[in-house]
């Protein structure tokens, strides 16, 4: 008789868990409130979003705005947080 094995998968990294609570707890480790992150790292992440945005466009739009606007917005926001490293 076949046995049934239930596996829970992290929705962010696909890591598998046999325990639901353990999986849910793990998913929370991916979430960042950014309140304790310094401006240098935030600037770096915004810049990265701008750099990779072209891979996520739909009909030339990203997050409801033209791709170029999104790229420019991320770069300008990053610059205002501090100079590039
Ligand atoms: Zn994960």
Task: Explain what you see.
This protein has helices at 20-28, 39-52, 67-81, and strands at 8-9, 16-17, 61-62, 65-66. The protein has 85 residues and is mainly α. The chain folds into 2 domains: 1-31; 39-81. A two-stranded antiparallel sheet has the order 1-2. Strands 3-4 form a two-stranded antiparallel ribbon. The radius of gyration is 19 Å and the shape is elongated. Bound molecules: zinc ion. Zinc ion binds next to loops.
Keywords:
two-stranded antiparallel sheet; 85 residues; 2 domains; binds zinc ion
Distinct ligands:
zinc ion
In quaternary terms, these chains amount to single chain
> What are the low-pLDDT stretches, counting only 5+ consecutive residues below 50?
none
What is the averaged pLDDT score? 95
Order of helices and strands: EEHHEEH
Number of helices: 3
Distance between the termini: 61 Å
Q: What is the radius of gyration?
A: 19 Å
How is the largest sheet built, in terms of strand order?
A: 1-2
- What is the approximate shape? elongated
Q: What about the largest sheet?
A: 2 strands, antiparallel
Percent of residues in helical segments?
A: 40-55%
């Amino acid at each position: 008789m076949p046995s049934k094995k239930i596996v829970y998968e992290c929705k962010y990294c696909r890591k598998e868990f046999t325990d639901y609570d353990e999986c849910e707890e793990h998913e929370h480790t991916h979430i960042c409130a950014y309140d304790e992150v310094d401006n240098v790292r935030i600037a770096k992440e915004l810049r990265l979003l701008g750099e990779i945005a072209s891979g996520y466009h739909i009909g030339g739009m990203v997050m409801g705005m033209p791709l170029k606007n999104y790229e420019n917005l991320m770069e300008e926001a990053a610059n205002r947080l501090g100079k590039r490293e």
